[in-house]
Amino acid sequence: MPDARTAPDSLRSAARPRRGAPARALLAACLAGVSLLLSACAPGTDPETTRESLTEVTEHPAPVQAAEEYDAEAHPDPLVEPIDCSPYLVITARGTGEPSKGQLVATVAKSVSDARPGEVDTLDLDYPADTDVNEGGTLGARLLVDTLDVQHEACPDQRFVLLGYSQGALVIGDALSDPEARLVGGTVGTIDDGAADAILAIVFFGDPRFVGAEEFNTGGFDPALNGLLPRPVGALEDFADRIRDYCVAGDFVCQSSLDLDEKPHVAYYTNGMPQDGAAFVITRLGPADPDAAKGSGERKADPDATEDGAGERAADGASPSAASDAE
After folding, report:
1. Domain coordinates in residue numbering, the chain
2. Has residue 119 got a pLDDT over 80?
3. CA 170 → CA 35, 159, 205, 264, distances in Å?
4. How far apart, in whole angstroms, are the C-alpha atoms of residue 133 and residue 165?
5. Three-state DSSP class for 164?
6. Residue 113 and residue 109: Cα distance in Å, rounded?
């Protein structure tokens, strides 16, 4: 596999795995205080800009640059390299404009990690998450497909958890769907069957591709309403028993509301749904490993990673590689 630090057309994905809390920590303690942390991190959202950036996905096909650059058939070499073979890998995808630090789903990932000390690594999908959803979403989908496939090949016993908010939910959902059901990433390839089977849990918040009739939905949503960009009914049926798709009433992104009030779309930071999502994930994990928490020190998959998880891991001005955000 080519080294992305020298290959100009590749990106190298790396995570900085974190140790969990002490093994004696109870699940309740793992989830305590999450609401306070989230409320301090809720980003400001411009509803009009968000709505326009999402609807442009259907009005303008993905730019040729993204479709060609990340075409899996034309460029089959993975954009990522495998990281350590922990029992569980949690992959997060942030919403439009969210900072890498303090994103909504990072705290969900931390709760899962704290519940299983020494067993969980967290990887933030480092895609742009900006208003160019076609371009950035295509990169995000390719990164996710490659990460799952490469990790499963290197670590066949590893299991995956996928967490996405807003645009991040769109990217994950499209990567899991058949190419013909996607709005972004139609050329980036599909997840291998083995890697798909290794996905234990998927949690979405404020999903633009929300479909009100799906059985895995939860929240105060109106089932007669869909998101701004609803996916075909049944597009994620292979994962239906592993998904929780959270949507609150009035969220203009997952309920396609004419009222562009930003408050419902950021309500997930304070309404308890992240804690509920974390609890759902934790119930799907296998038996705890009593020896996992005995390890000492912090493992680093990338020798160039700095203490705060930054570091140069991209070439020729490409987007930096994925880094852990579950601080």
Report:
1. 27-287
2. yes
3. 24, 21, 10, 18
4. 14
5. strand
6. 6
Tokens 């203009």 label which residue? 252
Determine if the pTM surpasses 0.70: yes
Return the higher-pLDDT residue of 264 and 50. 264
Q: How far apart are CA 164 and CA 109, in angstroms?
A: 11
Q: pLDDT (tens digit, 9 = 90+) per residue, 87-109?
A: 999 999 999 989 888 899 999 99
C-beta of residue 76 within 8 angstroms of C-beta of residue 1: no
Which CATH superfamily is 27-287 part of?
Alpha/Beta hydrolase fold, catalytic domain (3.40.50.1820)
Highest mean pLDDT among 44-58, 129-143, 298-312: 129-143
CA angle centred on 238, ends 265 and 139, rounded to 5°: 55
Alpha helices for the chain (secondary structure H): 27-31, 34-41, 47-59, 64-69, 104-115, 133-154, 167-176, 193-197, 263-266, 273-284
Phi then psi for 274, rounded to 5 degrees? -60, -40
**pLDDT tens, position by position, 203-260:** 999 999 999 999 999 999 999 999 999 999 999 999 999 999 999 999 999 998 766 7
